[in-house]
Amino acid sequence: MQQQALSAIVAWVRLEQAIGTFNQQLRREFGITGLQLAVLRILGERPALPLAALRKSLVMHPATLGQSIDELRVMELATVTRDPRDKRARIVAITDKGRDLMARAPLAGPVRLREMETEPARLDALKAAFDDSVELFGLTDYLPGKTEGR
Predict the structure, then answer these.
(1) Could you tell me which residues come within 8 angstroms of residue 75 by beta carbon, excluding any fewer than 6 positions away?
(2) What are the φ/ψ torsions at residue 78 (nearest 5 degrees)?
(3) Backbone phi, then psi, for 129, in 5-degree steps?
(4) Which structural domains are found in the chain, ordered by start?
(5) Beta strands 49-50 and 86-94: pairing type?
(6) pTM (whole model) above 0.85
(7) Distance between terminal CA atoms of the chain?
(8) Which of 21, 20, 11 shows the shortest CA–CA distance to 130?
(9) pLDDT for 91-141, tens place per residue?
C-alpha cells in the first residue's frame, strides 16, 4: 500500500474518532446529538426559520431532521409552529433554554465553519478534499438523490 494512502486512511480514522468522541460528550453532558447542536446553532442565527430552509441548509433527509427537531421540541430547546401564511409549513425557533445550552456547548464540528474566520483558500481546499473523498472512497452512488447502489 502506498504510504500516502495509509496516511490518508489514518487521517480519516482520526476524524471519525474525534467526531464520535465529540458526539458522546454532547450526549453525556448535554443530552443532545451533534446534529441537534448544529440545528440550535443555525437557529441561533435567526429569530425563526422555516423547516424547509433548515433542511436545505443541512442537506438532510426530512425524516432525520424532523426527528431531531421533535426531540429538541420535547426538551424545550426549540419550538415548532405552523406558518400562518402556509398552514402546511412549519417554523422552527430556538428557545432561551436552547440558547443557554448552545452557549455552554463546545464549538466544534462542521457548523463551526459558520462562526469562525478562516481564509477562503483553506475552505476551498477543505471542500475539494471532501469532494475527492466521496469519489475516492467509492461513495458517489450513495449521495442524496442517487438511486444506484441502494
Answers:
(1) 31, 32, 97
(2) -150, 160
(3) -65, -40
(4) 3-115 (1.10.10.10), 117-150 (no CATH)
(5) antiparallel
(6) no
(7) 29
(8) 11
(9) 999 999 999 999 999 999 888 898 889 999 999 999 999 999 999 999 999
Concatenate the DSSP letters of all residues of the chain into one string. Answer: --HHHHHHHHHHHHHHHHHHHHHHHHHHHHS--HHHHHHHHHHTTSS-EEHHHHHHHHT--HHHHHHHHHHHHHTTSEEEEEETTEEEEEEEEE-HHHHHHHHHS---SGGGGGTS---HHHHHHHHHHHHHHHHHTT-GGGSTT--TT-
CB atoms inside a 10 Å sphere around CB 71: 17
Q: To the nearest whole number, what is the mean pLDDT of the chain?
A: 90
Q: Give the Cα separation of 23 and 89 in Å (integer).
A: 30
CB atoms within 10 A of CB 75: 16
Kindly list the distances between the CA atom of residue 83 and the CA atoms of 32, 48, 87, 91, 127, in Å, as whole numbers in the listed order.
26, 11, 6, 6, 34
Q: Which residue has the cell 426530512?
A: 62
Report how far residue 146's alpha carbon sits from residue 92's, in angstroms, rounded to the nearest whole number: 28
